Amino acid sequence: MDGVEVDWAALEAAAVSAMQNAYAPYSSFPVGAAALTVDGRIVSGCNVENASYGLTLCAECALVGNLHMSGGGLLRAFYCVDGAGNVLMPCGRCRQLLYEFRGPDMELMTTRGVKTMDQVLPDAFGPEHLEETR
Ligand code: THU
């Protein structure tokens, strides 16, 4: 395991706080996401929709942007909530976003308890596959 202890309650609180900033007038489905980095920071994000519907930015998009704006690095743990504060599974695209920045022992809170990144996105495509053909 990485050196940082995961405080799931703190991550949940950060995700709920992020969710309260959501801009979701079209779906009325606010989402908040928070993650612990391997060096102990908490980064978060909310969903931001727009009139095109299809160009919606999921909460995880803002989260990975904030990860990089605050020094980059890799993720140790992830927590996502809906508008009621219930655990929400990241959508398929966002699992890919999270995979890109996974730390070696990344875990995610899911509707069925804590899982690893590999359990949530098995047999993933990743940066290593690009290297194979270069
Ligand atoms: N949403 C997220 O922000 N993250 C997810 O992983 C699932 C879906 C947002 C997108 C859209 O604004 C709303 O939830 C309904 O799909």
TrEMBL record:
MF-aspect GO terms: cytidine deaminase activity; identical protein binding; zinc ion binding
Concerning InterPro entries, the annotation shows: APOBEC/CMP_deaminase_Zn-bd, CMP_dCMP_dom, Cyt/Deoxycyt_deaminase, Cyt_deam_tetra, Cytidine_deaminase-like
Active-site positions on this chain: 60
The catalysed reaction is: cytidine + H2O + H(+) = uridine + NH4(+); 2'-deoxycytidine + H2O + H(+) = 2'-deoxyuridine + NH4(+)
A GO BP term here is: pyrimidine-containing compound metabolic process
List residues traversing the bilayer: none
Tell me its EC number(s), please: 3.5.4.5
Where substrate binds, per the record, is at 47-53
The cofactors required by this protein are: Zn(2+)
Q: Which SUPFAM superfamilies does the UniProt entry name for this protein?
A: Cytidine deaminase-like (SSF53927)
Keyword annotations from UniProtKB, A to Z: Hydrolase, Metal-binding, Zinc
- Similarity remark: Belongs to the cytidine and deoxycytidylate deaminase family.
Q: What is this protein called?
A: Cytidine deaminase
The source organism is: Arthrobacter ulcerisalmonis
Question: What's the name of its gene?
Answer: cdd
